[in-house]
Amino acid sequence: MTSLISERIANIRASLPPSVRLIAVSKKVSTELMREAYSAGIRDFGESRIQEATVKQAELQDLPDITWHFIGHLQSNKAKKALELFDWIHSVDNLNIAQRLDTLAQQMGVNPSVCLQVKILSDPQKSGWMTPELLADLQTLNECQHLQIQGLMTIPPLGLKDTEILNVFQRTQELAQEINEQKLSLIKIQHLSMGMSGDYQLAVSAGATMVRLGTIIFGERV
After folding, report:
1. How many whole angstroms separate alpha carbon 146 and alpha carbon 133?
2. Residue 154: which CATH number?
3. Is the pLDDT of residue 214 over 60?
4. Nearest CA to 49 among 71, 33, 76, 31?
5. What is the 3-state secondary structure (H, E, C) of the chain?
6. How far is 42 from 36, CA to CA, in rounded Å?
7. Domains held by the chain: number
8. Is residue 222 pLDDT above 80, yes or no?
9. Share of the chain above pLDDT 70, in %
10. What residue numbers bound the domain in which 159 lies?
11. In Å, what is the CA distance from 88 to each residue of 20, 46, 103, 140?
């Protein structure tokens, strides 16, 4: 019998270009449901709390081909643990945390893939660089030799119309192009991590390469 989760995943995959990576956001989701998603072909899971991810990774260690994505706000004191647990960090949201991760990555001998979190529109609810701040910090970020800065991540403010959400995603894509035109030695923006359950199709139309979907896969969190 096909599970509801595998049905949902099949429907989502049918709506996505093959080039778009589907990250199942599994915060507050049981490992039992995560195993269902895994059985349906999901190999990318997104978590936003270090403590929760630690427990889940221990319970799922028999599934060694999972790629783990950190998508929550990262505090400096959790940076080392994040590097131990995660292959990708999508939410590098300021220069200090980038430099902290770079120092720790050097000490630990790892080269994590990261996205820089950007705010296209001012939003007090979200962390991240505004566009002028990020452009001003690029040269310094380019000195972070132990980070693979490969993408931009964005979350539109709540309450926008579809046309406004689309504009946020399009401007993120334009910002990626602007950064790549600078031809920095270490920063190459190949990924756009944008789009969640309510707006992922808009994000894909604007060039998203990774979508972070939770509710549409697992249902409402308890």
Report:
1. 22
2. 3.20.20.10
3. yes
4. 71
5. CCCHHHHHHHHHHHHCCCCCEEEEECCCCCHHHHHHHHHCCCCEEEECCHHHHHHHHHHCCCCCCCEEEECCCCCHHHHHHHHHHCCEEEEECCHHHHHHHHHHHHHHCCCCEEEEEEECCCCCCCCCEEHHHHHHHHHHHCCCCCCEEEEEEECCCCCCCHHHHHHHHHHHHHHHHHHHHCCCCCCCCCEEECCCCCCHHHHHHCCCCEEEECHHHHCCCC
6. 9
7. 1
8. no
9. 99
10. 4-218
11. 16, 9, 17, 21
Q: Please give the single-letter amino acid code of residue 7.
A: E
- Which tokens sit at 18? 């093959």
Quick check: 1 pLDDT over 60?
Answer: no
pLDDT for 2? 64
Averaged pLDDT of the chain: 97
Vertex 83 angle, CA 190 and 79, to 5° = 105
CB 47 within 8 A of CB 69: yes
Q: Is the pLDDT of residue 4 over 80?
A: yes
Does the pLDDT of residue 29 top 70, yes or no? yes
92: Cβ–Cβ under 8 A, 6 or more apart, which residues? Answer: 74, 98, 101, 114, 115, 116, 117, 147, 149
| Digit-coded pLDDT (tens) for 87-144 | 999 999 999 999 999 999 999 999 999 999 999 999 999 999 999 999 999 999 999 9
Q: And the tokens for 17?
A: 């270009």
Distance CA(163)–CA(170), nearest Å, equals 10
